[in-house]
Amino acid sequence: MIQTPGLTTVRSGFDPAYPAPPRVHWSVLLLSWIAISVLLQMCAPAPYQGLLQSLPADAWAFYLCLWIRKLDPNSRSAFWCDAYVVIELAYAALSTRQSNSAALEFLFVVLGFASVILGIATIFLIRADLQKHYNEKEPVGLVLQPVMTFFFSFLYFQFHLYTIAKQKQQAAEHTFHPGGTHS
Per-residue pLDDT tens for 47-100? Predict the structure, then answer.
């Protein structure tokens, strides 16, 4: 039995019908985001940096939601992630505006507020989907703390998903032998 923080004792009862989580270490994900952000800071025109800075994290959120959709076709996190990304991009695009009319300023505030609310909702929907799957369909006892989810969201998820991906691979290697027999 394997013990890791946030996971209780793991059984080797992973279901091969479900795809393994993305096998990307959280630190690689963080370093990739930082590298892309620095590159955008150096290369992107100043008015468009705000628009482009959120794209790496948005792309990962979207990728994670698509993977979750493979686990559970009824998952709602992909829809809310799409809504979040559209609103966030509209907010960022509006931030590049040249005029400062009262109507545009009001729209800017509303889109900013909506972006924050949808971002938080998306993170917690993904959390709920992950906990549901890894506590019901492939029970590994996944526990995702709300405070850690709020502050570290995708890096925190990836910490646990990387561990689950490694365990799932180990379980598959120990379950199937080259001769076609099962242990």
Answer: 788 778 888 889 999 999 999 999 999 999 999 999 999 999 999 888 877 777
Q: Where are the domains of the chain?
A: 53-173
Measured from the Cβ of residue 96, the count of other Cβ atoms closer than 10 Å reads: 13
Give phi and psi for 177, each to the nearest 5. -105, 155
The Cα-based distances of 168 to 10, 27, 52, 139, 178 in angstroms read: 10, 20, 35, 12, 18
Global pTM reads: 0.85
| Integer Cα distance of 122 and 179 in angstroms | 44
Other residues' Cβ atoms within 10 Å of the Cβ of residue 37: 17
Closest CA relative to residue 129, chosen from 68, 174, 70, 85: 68
Instruction: Name the burial class of residue 6, with classes exposed (0-12), middle (13-18) and buried (19+) by CB atoms within 10 angstroms of its CB.
Output: middle
The residue whose two tokens read 């509303």 is 110
Backbone angles phi, psi at 25, to 5 degrees: -65, 145
Cα separation of 124 and 31, whole Å?
Answer: 24
